[in-house]
Amino acid sequence: MLPNVGWSELLIVLVIVLVLFGAKRLPELAKSMGSSLHAFKKGIKDGFEPNEKDAKETKKEAKLS
């Protein structure tokens, strides 16, 4: 279960992050998190799509059985 998070809680978290990382590093941090999320989604997508090499190996194994 997730707790109800209101605007006041989000504002407090934002202030804490601002104090910890500073205003100059926040854009850098957001860009890093965004690129990491993009790479993660790409890895998940590539992991579930069979590539040609795997498909050929699977067909060879099926013929041998």
pLDDT averaged residue by residue: 79
Between the first and last Cα atoms, what is the distance in angstroms?
A: 48 Å
Number of helices: 3
Beta content comes to: under 5%
Total number of strands: 0
How many structural domains in the coordinates?
Answer: 1
Helix content: over 70%
| Unreliable stretches | none
What profile does the largest beta sheet have?
Answer: none
Q: What's the Cα radius of gyration?
A: 22 Å
Structural class: mainly alpha
Q: Which overall shape is indicated by the principal axes computed on the Cα atoms?
A: elongated
* H and E order: HHH
Q: How would you describe this structure to a colleague?
A:
This protein has 65 residues and is mainly alpha-helical. The chain has one domain (7-64). It has helices spanning 7-21, 26-48, 52-64.
Task: Based on the model shown, name its key terms.
65 residues, mainly alpha
Short synopsis of the structure:
The protein is mostly helical. The chain has one domain (7-64).
Provide the fold topology:
Elements: H1 7-21, H2 26-48, H3 52-64
